[in-house]
């Protein structure tokens, strides 16, 4: 699926110039001249990158970006600005709200295109990391559930072992010893060996842990 890039500028001639410059770029491009239109587009379209002018009459670019981040924090934002406005952007860039800024008029079409491509790549990387975290979370949850089931099964196993051992030592062992004492031991050698082996298994450290 190709990316969608939304361009916002109140100057129609700027939007027209960007449209001409990017006509051969392989991603969907949407152009609007008002911030309110951009917010409506964000609600309906799977926008990955927002490129907005800094100074606009109804709502400036930074205010627009703040509103966009409230709705869609994953969108990568780029500011279009004049050289004299660059200091205004430093705080927003440092806070991570703005990915890059592009000056207008721009000196190089290739640099302009490169920044857009970097923003698209940044969005893709963010989504990949998000999906990885989601997969790891699901795997961790599944592993925890498996361990809990195993622990429950092991607990039941230990309880059953204690019941068997109690029954053995309380009823079977005394009866068997009495039987041995009353009969010829030679006739019960094999039975006794089996009895002792069974007892050893029940009481062994390995079995009872």
TrEMBL record:
Residues 4-119 form the Response regulatory domain. Transmembrane segments: none annotated. InterPro entries: Bact_response_regulator, CheY-like_superfamily, Sig_transdc_resp-reg_receiver. The keyword Coiled coil applies. Residues 133-160 form a coiled coil. CDD domains: REC_HupR-like. It holds the Pfam family Response_reg. Keywords: Coiled coil, Phosphoprotein. It comes from the Bacteria. GO terms for biological process: phosphorelay signal transduction system. SUPFAM superfamilies: CheY-like. Gene3D superfamilies: 3.40.50.2300. The modification 4-aspartylphosphate is found at residue 53. This is Response regulator. It comes from Desulfofervidus auxilii.
